[in-house]
Design a protein that fits this description.
Number of helices: 5
Mean pLDDT: 86
Radius of gyration: 20 Å
Oligomer: single chain
Distance between the termini: 49 Å
Length: 262
């Protein structure tokens, strides 16, 4: 499985009549192929940790704040709290109705918290809250998977103790064919779909969200496809963290001319 690029038309009337022609995806990818993945850390200077992720045309920015003391608890607790909030920019989706976006934001926030809760060591910050604030700048398909990847990258950037990095992948079944990392157009045409979040090093699934009708064999194949894809995402996340740590550790070296000017 490799990473390639694709674009998604923005307006509803631009939706193609089909997303698979002659057994192939319209954007030229193989069925088990990602779109271009771009990762970056430290994008929000005021946050404890932050990240920016592009998965094809899906763009997500995440800031992690805290841990901070909770005002909601009246007594001591050995466990901290994880507060996930996902917001969509007004121009992120084709649907312009705010009630539709608000419902989607609530669903994404709850799903993100479920995916991350198994990884974050909440006992390391008792009676405190860790805020994970996500902004979806563009929703071009596989939004939840991109949000989970961006959030776990931001948590690691904030030096929050984790059992393992959480990766996620989406699979859609369109015309009987299972497609990894579906675009918004492919999700619009899907017969069934799922999003799986996974901790590869621990070999543990942290959440599985599915819709539509799956046969036993189809569901097994889709889960295995998503788990394999999560391992690729995990490798990309770790590479970015290593690169980011190296940049922080090694300050730029001035040449002789720069030293004289200084």
């Amino acid at each position: 499985m490799a990473f390639t690029n694709s674009s998604v038309p923005f307006f509803r009337h631009d939706r193609p009549a089909e997303v698979i022609a002659d057994g192939k995806r319209l954007d030229g990818r193989d069925n088990e192929e990602f779109r271009t993945l771009f990762l970056n850390c430290g994008t929000i200077s005021q946050a404890s940790g932050s990240s920016y992720v592009e998965l094809g045309s899906t763009k997500v920015m995440v800031g992690v704040y805290g841990p901070r003391q909770s005002d909601r608890w009246m007594k001591y607790s050995e466990q901290g709290s994880l507060d996930c909030d996902v917001r969509l920019a007004t121009f992120a989706t084709r649907q312009r109705g705010r009630p539709i976006q608000t419902q989607l934001e609530k669903e994404l926030s709850a799903q993100l918290e479920t995916a991350l809760s198994a990884s974050v060591l909440l006992h390391t910050f008792p009676k405190a809250v860790l805020d994970v604030q996500c902004l979806v700048l563009e929703a071009g398909g596989s939004v939840l998977a991109a949000v989970i990847a961006a959030a776990t990258l931001a948590l690691a950037d904030a030096s929050i103790e984790l059992r393992d990095l959480v990766s996620a992948a989406s699979v859609s079944r369109v015309q009987g064919i299972q497609l990894l990392d579906p675009t918004a157009e492919e999700e619009y045409r899907e017969e069934a779909g799922l999003v799986l979040s996974f901790m590869p090093c621990l070999n543990q699934i942290t959440s599985l969200t599915s819709h539509g009708v799956w046969s036993k064999d189809e569901l097994r194949d889709a889960v295995e496809l998503a788990m394999g894809a999560c391992e690729e995402i995990d490798a990309a996340l770790r590479d970015q963290l290593v690169q980011n740590a190296s940049q922080r550790r090694d300050p730029p070296v001035l040449d002789e001319d720069d030293n004289e000017n200084a």
